[in-house]
Amino acid sequence: MAIKGDTMLSEDVPRFFNKMVQIPVSEMPILTYTASEDGFLFSILADTHDSGKRMDTYVASVIPGCSRALAAELILKGKILVQGKIKKPAYKLKAGEEIHGCIPEPEPVSYKAEAIDIHILYEDEHLIVINKAPGMVVHPAPGNYTGTLVNALLYHCPDLDGIGGKLRPGIVHRLDKDTSGALVVAKNALAQERLSFYFKSRTVKKTYLALVHGEMKSDAGTISLPIGRHPVHRKKMSTCSKIGREAETCWKVRERFFGATLLEIALKTGRTHQIRVHCAAIHHPVIGDEVYGARNAGKNLPVQVSALIQSATRQMLHAWRLEFCHPFTGENMCFESPIPEDMEALILSFQGKRENFV
């Protein structure tokens, strides 16, 4: 890449510019930049191989730390121009055109950094993998502006780069508040963009463990039922929605108990509450699920077994394994998250009771 201006790693240049995108030498654009009080001023000269590319996509591919969404936003605001003129994000570039503009310094988010203990399975400069504890909300929202995973990460990850113009962790997937387990979070814009693409293209392998009501009749199966908003209860999801989206859940029996089954579940899609909705749809709701579970589930079982089921204070669902390609090295990475204590204790209790009902 032909670079003019200050030295590449100058302290005056925004931190996100220090992580350069790997571009083939033959395709390196001519880029000039200047650090200013307003942010990162840049100028790019489009070459013949850039002709026909979308403006927002091209800017995001050349400027590290600038996602396509941020590029589109800045283009619409007139902060990034072509030949000095405002264009639309979808504008197709022509060879010889000059794209120049300003990428503002990332702004701190309004959420507070909090010294909350988190279990880190892996961390490097691009991403962090967490074993999320049950009861922890992932992202701040009305009613939960503190005590979330984002609040914890803002404290534990001082090396966060700008994502969408903000200094924040890049949440690329989520787990429900009362679901535990492995969760990957991006630490810079390019890592977020690539990880988001992996999830969208379904190349990320997600395996869960779920303790469900009842005894499964077969050893394995697939649930293929569309999921959408519940037609009446809008905060719930349902397989009876008029506008459902494709959803596929593969399961196999890991261990059988009297009145319950431990399932290993692989998601082919990632719909909201997918496992909980699908398990309830086949009449084997997740134990402890107050939203999708039947109120009288387990009451017709022996008192000891029913008491075990009723003792669950949350849904017994755990994101056990997460497998994906590293967004920068391409290395295949696989993480297994230990089963939380409450779920492990319930499984052990079921194992102890099994002999009494054989």
Can you tell me about this structure?
This protein has helices at residues 55-62, 68-76, 149-156, 189-200, 274-281, 303-310, 341-354, and strands at residues 2-4, 30-36, 39-45, 80-82, 98-104, 107-108, 119-123, 127-132, 162-163, 166-167, 170-171, 180-186, 205-213, 220-224, 228-229, 237-238, 248-257, 260-267, 317-325, 332-336. The protein starts with a strand and ends with a helix. Strands 7, 8, 11, 12, 13, 14, 17, 18, 19 and 20 form a 10-stranded mixed β-sheet that branches. Strands 1-2-3-5-4 form a 5-stranded mixed β-sheet. The chain is α+β, with helices and mostly antiparallel strands. Mean pLDDT is 84; it is low at 1-28. Helix 1 (55-62) crosses helix 2 and helix 6 packs antiparallel against helix 7 (341-354). The protein is 19% helix and 29% strand. The chain is built from 7 helices and 20 strands. The protein has 3 domains: 2-104, Structural Genomics Hypothetical 15.5 Kd Protein In mrcA-pckA Intergenic Region, Chain A, CATH 3.10.290.10; 106-201, Pseudouridine synthase, CATH 3.30.2350.10; 202-358, Pseudouridine synthase (2-Layer Sandwich), CATH 3.30.2350.10. The longest helix has 14 residues, at 341-354.
